[in-house]
Every structure is written in structure tokens, then in C-alpha cells.
Design a protein that fits this description.
The chain crosses the membrane at residues 7-25, 45-65, 77-96, 102-120, 132-153, 165-184, 247-270, 279-298, 304-328, 340-358, 370-387. This is MFS transporter. It is a single chain. By secondary structure, the protein is mainly alpha-helical. 77% of the residues lie in helices and 0% in strands. The chain contains 18 helices and no strands. The longest helix is centred in the middle third of the chain and has 35 residues, at 208-242. The radius of gyration is 20 Å and the shape is globular.
């Protein structure tokens, strides 16, 4: 294995994370093409998005239960999962697909994404003890850009069909996995778990600081993926409501989601001065306000004002994520750090299933401008968890 300098490790992990997490919303970015090609129902968006989330939840639970990330080389786990998830992502292009097969393929893709996102954070934690919040800010920023990439690829119109976007994202994931395997050895702060221990799954929640970080993260996750998944839906409703002709929904969706990468990096730097907990609470507060104001912004005809509002929201909605992960990693023992990150991710993504399905149902019942109001529940809950810890 090639051994690069420590200073180059973070950029390598960040780039690989970006490549591999492009699989996450690969289906969302080309949902129109998939729906048309396979004659899917109108609510396919929510079900296919939830299939990935459910797969990720199952995968993270298995990874945590068997302490895979702490007992085996994280780089090898990352590589193997990148290859398998890329293959199952490719399966959705086949002509024989039905709704059921698409759900299965997206589910399995999600299962092996569990060996990419939290494992990438584990690798970073093995290399960076000080300034972990800043390091994870770059890493989660890569996740954001990877998530937004399919919207960009589709919005720019460079690819002849939606299938080309799927080919591109799978190719990127394979490349990202190879880079980690070849260039990223085990980190200096890695302490492999010596034995298989089921009890780790619940023991990590005993420290109050850990619980505070975990519950704050859960509140954040209630909002995050539902916002990302239904942003194109709300934008389409906005376009129809105001009769706007020239409006590239895919490109706007990309910009609003992608700007979150800047929010992650900025929050990482701010955490070094104002602490991770304070910056996370500030970002949650902004997200909460945006949820509440969203119906009023929807009614505004000023596109520039609305776009700036969404940019601020896009930064705030993800800015706290790396800080919660840093707090989780810092408030658990080194030997079970990977498992702690994985189990918290598993529960957090389980929560996204609930919020996504609620919005999926409400979309058929209420006006689109009110959809994001219910997402404010998450930031409120997260803020309560953080404030309770401050008082204790």
C-alpha cells in the first residue's frame, strides 16, 4: 500500500467520500426518467428514497452489531462496500425492472452505503484527534456534494439519458473505493476492538454527553433528508404556482443542496472558536426558523429573495451534522468509536424514513407550500437535547 503524507490523507478521504456518496441520490436526480421508463406511481420518489434509507439503516445496524468497522481495516471495508453498492446502483438501468425490483436494488445500495459514510468518518477519526470537527466538516461536505451531484449531472444536460447519470455515479464510486484502498492505511489513533461484543450497541449511550450529541443528531436528521428529497417537489409547485417558464429545477436543487458543503466547512472552522455544541445549536436554530417561514417564502414572487432563503437553509440544514458526529466520536471510547458512529447513524437514518414518508403522504393531502412546516419538529427536539445538557 502506498503511504502518503498525513496532510494528504484528509483530501483523499474527502474526494473518495464525494465519489461514493453520489450513489445516494442517484435515483432522485433522475427520478423523472425512471418514473417514465418504468411507468411508476406518482409517489415513487418517497418510496425509492426510503428504500435507500432503510437499506442504510439495516446495514449500519449489522455493522454496529458485529463491530465490523472496529474489528477490520476500515479502508478495506470502505473499498468492498463501494464496489458492491456501485454494482447494485447499475442494476436499476435494466429494462426488466419493476417497482419491486427497483426498491430491492436501491435497498441493497443503501445497505452497502453503510460501509462508506460512517466508515469514512471512522477513518478520519483514526487520523485526526485534534480539530476533528473541522476534519469532519470537510468529510460531510463531501457527502453533501456527492448527494447533490446527480441533480447537477441531470440539470446541465450533458448526458443523453438518465441511465448515463447512473453509469457515471457508479463509475465514480468504484474509483473512490480504489483510492481509499490504495492510498489510506490504518490511522495512528486506531485501536481495533479485540472481541465481538453485542453490548456495545447500548453501552455507548450511557455517558450523558454522548446522549446529548446523539439526540441532537436525531433531531437534525428528522429534517435533513426529507428537505433534500422533497426540495424538487416544492420547487415544481412553486414554479406552477407563479407561472414561471424558465426555471431549471434540477440545477436549483443542486445549488441549494451543494451549498451545504460550504456550511459544513464553515461550521467546522467555527467550532474551533465557539465549540461544536454551540455552533450546532446555532445551525439547528436557523433551520427551525426556515421551516416555519417556508410557507411565506413560497408565496413571494421575488425569485432572488426565495433563492437566497433556500441558500441559507441549504447551508444551515447540514452545517451541524459534522459537529454532532465529532461530539459522538469524542464522547466514546476509542475501541468502539466506529461502532458508536455507526449505531447513531443507523438510528438517525431510521428517523429519516418516518419524516420522508410523512411528507410523501402529506404531499397528496395538503398544499405543497406547507410541506416543510412539519420538519421544524426535528430542530426543536435537537435544541432541547443540547440545552438540557448545558443545564446539567
Amino acid at each position: 500500500m502506498i503511504r502518503p503524507n498525513k496532510s494528504s490523507i484528509l483530501p483523499i478521504i474527502v474526494f473518495s467520500q464525494f465519489c461514493c456518496t453520489s450513489l445516494w441520490f442517484a435515483g432522485n436526480g433522475v427520478m423523472g426518467g425512471i418514473t417514465e421508463s418504468f411507468s411508476l406511481e406518482g409517489n415513487a420518489l418517497g418510496y425509492l428514497t426510503s428504500a435507500v434509507q432503510l437499506g442504510f439503516i439495516f446495514g449500519t445496524f449489522v455493522f454496529a452489531l458485529y463491530t465490523i468497522t472496529d474489528r477490520y481495516s476500515p479502508s478495506k471495508v470502505f473499498f468492498g462496500c463501494a464496489i458492491i453498492s456501485a454494482i447494485f446502483n447499475l442494476f436499476i438501468v435494466f429494462e426488466f425492472n419493476t417497482t419491486s425490483s427497483l426498491l430491492v436494488f436501491r435497498f441493497v445500495t443503501g445497505v452497502f452505503l453503510a460501509g462508506i459514510y460512517p466508515v469514512g468518518m471512522k477513518i478520519a477519526a483514526d487520523y485526526f484527534s485534534k480539530g476533528l470537527g473541522k476534519s469532519l466538516g470537510f468529510l460531510v461536505g463531501a457527502l453533501v456534494l456527492g448527494t447533490a451531484l446527480p441533480h447537477l449531472l441531470r440539470g446541465l444536460g450533458w448526458f443523453p439519458s438518465w441511465r448515463s447519470v447512473i453509469y457515471a455515479t457508479s463509475g465514480l464510486a468504484i474509483f473512490g473505493g480504489i483510492i481509499v484502498l490504495v492510498l489510506v492505511p490504518n490511522g495512528p489513533y486506531r485501536k481495533p476492538a479485540s472481541k465481538f461484543d453485542f453490548s456495545v450497541v447500548y453501552k455507548v449511550f450511557k455517558p450523558s454527553n454522548f446522549r446529548s450529541a446523539a439526540f441532537g443528531y436525531f433531531g437534525h436528521m428528522w429534517e435533513l433528508y426529507a428537505f433534500w428529497a422533497f426540495l424538487p417537489v416544492v420547487l415544481a409547485a412553486y414554479q406552477n404556482y407563479h407561472g414561471i417558464i424558465e426555471f431549471n429545477i434540477s440545477l436549483v436543487s443542486f445549488m441549494v443542496i451543494a451549498i451545504g458543503a460550504l456550511g459544513c466547512v464553515l461550521s467546522g472552522y467555527l467550532s474551533q472558536k465557539y465549540t461544536s455544541k454551540n455552533v450546532a445549536a446555532f445551525a439547528l436554530g436557523i433551520s427551525c426558523v426556515c421551516c416555519i417561514l417556508s410557507p411565506f417564502i413560497f408565496l413571494s414572487k421575488f425569485q432572488i429573495l426565495n433563492f437566497m432563503f433556500l441558500v441559507i437553509w441549504g447551508m444551515a440544514v447540514i452545517a451541524d451534522s459534522p459537529l454532532f458526529s465529532a461530539l459522538v466520536a469524542q464522547n466514546t471510547e476509542a475501541e468502539v468509536k466506529g461502532t458508536a458512529l455507526t449505531i447513531v447513524n443507523s438510528i438517525g437514518f431510521a428517523i429519516t424514513i418516518i419524516s420522508i414518508q410523512i411528507l410523501n403522504t402529506l404531499e397528496l393531502i395538503i398544499d405543497a407550500k406547507y410541506l416543510f412546516l412539519i420538519l421544524s419538529i426535528g430542530p426543536i427536539f435537537g435544541l432541547m437535547a443540547l440545552l438540557k445538557e448545558k443545564k446539567s
